[in-house]
Amino acid sequence: EKLMFFVALRLTVGLIQMRHSLKYLLIGTSGLPDFPEFMATATVDEVQVGYCDSNKKAEPKQEWAKELVKNDSGHLDWYSERCLLHQQAFRLSMDNLKQGSDTEGPHVLQRLTGCEWDDETGETKGFDQFGYDGEDFISLDLKTFTWIALTPKAVNTKLNWDANIGLLEENKKFLNYQYPDWLKMYPQNCITPFLFLIHKNKNTILSLLQRTPSSPISCFATHFYPDRAEMFWRKDGEEIHEGVEKGDILPNNDETFQMSVELNISSIKFEDWKRYDCVFQLSGIKDDLIIKLNKALIRTNRGEIHFIYISRLHCKWFSFKNLCHSDDFPPFFKLLFIASSEFLFNV
Description:
2 domains; 32% strand; alpha+beta; Ig-like_dom_sf; 347 residues; Immunoglobulin-like; glycoprotein; six-stranded mixed beta sheet; Murine Class I Major Histocompatibility Complex, H2-DB, Chain A, domain 1; globular
């Protein structure tokens, strides 16, 4: 029976083709006494698999990752060494950046690097970009392997980094070879996310929420995996855009995801409600989830539902803020906002 289960699992996983990602987010801070001076996290398919900071050594965060480093101690040693090296490099970079700044107070330097892999086409794509104090700062052009200054403040940094041939060669090695090789290896160990796709999605919940009788109605989906999903409102079976506001896909605390899309009902006659429905589509799952616009199905948040709102406004505290206003806004940044919300929202 167990053999048949794993054969079925293997076949099912083989039918699921998706884009995978390996991302490293590194953050250096200055002037924030209650915040680590440096922290770094690694994610595979938007799930955190490793973490370190200026107070903690590198440690795996998933069972498969713990098993991997148990069998290959050198893997964890590499991450520990890189954590220390990046901490020193970030401290030096921030000291240089602060010398050219007229502003006092807290400073934040970020780096987002890694790669994506399409397991259907075999295509891999690396990325490496920095942000400083709420602005995109500098990014690496992977065609020419030269740095692009995204703000006039980064011109000197670009010139210095372009002249560092050894560092450029190291980046090329990791972005073109090492990261893709690891990414292709990690999902083979990462059984849990695939189990989520097969088993967890039976717990996916689609519901209608409304804060007050005059508020828009939110179609809310939660406990789904992966984070590649679409949700939209329809009228008479056709997708509509007027009066619709789509929210971001956000992580839950169990490695599944949630999303919502609001419908403004102020101009919709009650007798026409029956013409509207909400559709949820998940990558890798054939059948859609559909819920009709029905007053009897609407739940309110008074006394029973608690919302967490991550406003795009808070992107000002972090870099890559142009991404906050696009559909490509990285899910992990949202995870960071949630994890740091107590600190950020009280500043």
